[in-house]
TrEMBL record:
InterPro entries: Cell_synth_C (IPR003921), TPR-like_helical_dom_sf (IPR011990), TPR_rpt (IPR019734)
Cross-referenced SUPFAM superfamilies: TPR-like
Keywords of this entry: Signal
Name the UniProt record assigns to this protein: Tetratricopeptide repeat protein
Species whose genome carries this gene: Candidatus Sodalis endolongispinus
Signal peptide range: 1-29
Entry-linked Pfam families: TPR_16, TPR_19
Length: 443
């Protein structure tokens, strides 16, 4: 696949080293007086306009006031290199070394010296084949230009960016960029390259995303790299903040948000149902809630919370969750709808039981009357509740009638047989109680 060509040092090398001079000098300019800073800025201006004679004049004025001014010495050495005057460059570099032996710009001068010796045509060739995807050949070309040494500052990012396309050499590229950022923490191009390269591998992807995120709002390249990384990532619920930050800038990027929802949903739901099946309802709840944080309308997660509520006899919550799940549609919606009706029934039956426990048997019987008309096990459960309540209230005739009605629907119902037996015992009908299914003779 052909890669998009990036601006390289080769494209601006012929126009001068102004960018390098501004970058390196800026970190020291705060130590100067306003008058000296004005002369330094004037020198940079004239150099940018290709008036190096005027630039040197401004810098000599600085040295007339402060003969050991490191900024002026650095710029004089750099401009001499740019003009091909190696002897003058060496002279100014020696003075800078004497004044500031640990100055980081000494390495920049060495790098600039190396760059001056590089053939622009050969550098352009290496950049072109790198952009065309011929990575092995491009890396070999760069190394030949650098004579297998550390790449010069101005070409370091370009070189490491190319090197990273070789999986076996990627750790070397990452180490090189980390080293560069340790020395030059404000190098945004190196930071962007490091962040992007880290996202190539799953193990480092989150670190890369963390580096790219603060750069993305001001850099289209960083933003594009961040989006690709978020699409590559197999996200977890904890990654939601990264996707939220991106979506705040791109609210219409539905493909990215759908990737997050589907990925998180599949992983978390699988873990949630596994926990539910093993009886760990707390872990299951945590997983399902994580899914719903990403996608509040996920039917499977809503149903999962419904199942948990059913296990906890929280029928009101179960009905609510299962009805919400049903509204999402899907292959399981009919099953969820049936379970929601079950939850509604048993919630109503619980209300009747609560009324009985509170000493309101009449209300309990009223609430349970329509429930006993249900078919199947639900209707039988409500009828048994009513019969037991009638017997406890000494409505023995009513209890007997209800138990017998249950046995008409389910002749083998053990609970109804036992309830009827005790009812008949209470009615002092021992003969009938011995065979509760036999009806008593009419008087």
């Amino acid at each position: 696949m052909k890669r998009v060509a990036k601006p390289t040092f080769a494209t601006w090398c012929a126009a001068g080293l102004t960018g390098l001079s501004l970058y390196a000098a800026a970190s020291h300019a705060a130590d100067n007086s306003p008058a000296i800073n004005a002369l330094l800025q004037q020198a940079v201006y004239w150099h940018d306009k290709s008036h190096d004679d005027l630039a040197r004049e401004s810098l000599q004025k600085v040295l007339a006031v402060d003969e050991n001014n490191a900024d002026a010495l650095y710029l004089l050495a750099l401009y001499s290199l740019k003009n091909g005057n190696q002897a003058q460059a060496a002279k100014w570099r020696a003075r800078l070394t004497a004044v500031s032996p640990s100055d980081t710009r000494l390495q920049s001068l060495d790098s600039a010296n190396v760059v001056q010796a590089i053939s622009p045509a050969q550098l352009a060739y290496a950049s072109r084949i790198a952009a065309d995807g011929s990575t092995l050949q491009a890396v070999a070309s760069y190394r030949a230009l650098f004579q297998d040494a550390t790449p010069p500052d101005s070409l370091a990012v370009e070189y490491y960016d190319t090197l990273a396309w070789l999986p076996s050499a990627r750790p070397q590229a990452i180490a090189g960029l980390r080293s560069r950022l340790q020395a030059l923490p404000n190098d945004r191009s190196a930071r962007l390259a490091l962040g992007r390269i880290l996202t190539y591998d799953e193990a480092n992807r989150r670190e890369g995303i963390a580096i790219l995120t603060p750069l993305a709002s001001a850099s289209r390249n960083a933003d594009a790299a961040l989006r690709q990384a978020l699409l590559w990532l197999a996200p977890q619920a904890a990654d939601k903040a990264d996707y939220d930050r991106y979506m705040q800038r791109h609210p219409n990027d539905s493909a990215l948000w759908q990737h997050f929802q589907q990925s998180v949903g599949g992983t978390e739901k699988g873990a949630g149902y596994a926990a539910l099946n093993s009886g760990d309802t707390a872990a299951a709840r945590s997983r399902f809630e994580a899914v719903l944080t990403a996608n509040p309308n996920d039917g499977d997660a809503l149903a999962g919370l419904g199942y948990i509520a059913l296990r906890n006899n929280d029928f009101t919550s179960a009905e609510n969750y299962l009805n919400q799940a049903t509204k999402q549609g899907g292959a399981n919606s009919a099953q969820w709808a049936a379970l929601a009706q079950d939850a509604k029934f048993y919630g109503a039956l619980n209300q009747a039981k609560a009324a009985a426990a509170a000493g309101n048997p009449a209300q309990a019987l009223t609430l349970s009357a329509p429930l006993a008309q249900e078919t199947g096990d639900k209707g039988l459960a409500a009828a048994l509740f009513r019969a037991d309540l009638q017997r406890r209230q000494n409505d023995l005739i009513g209890a007997e009638q209800t138990y017998r009605a249950i046995l008409n629907r389910d002749a083998q119902n053990k609970d109804a047989k036992l309830g009827l037996y005790y009812t008949l015992r209470q009615e002092n009908s021992p003969g009938v109680a011995a065979n509760p299914t036999r009806r008593r003779a009419s008087p």
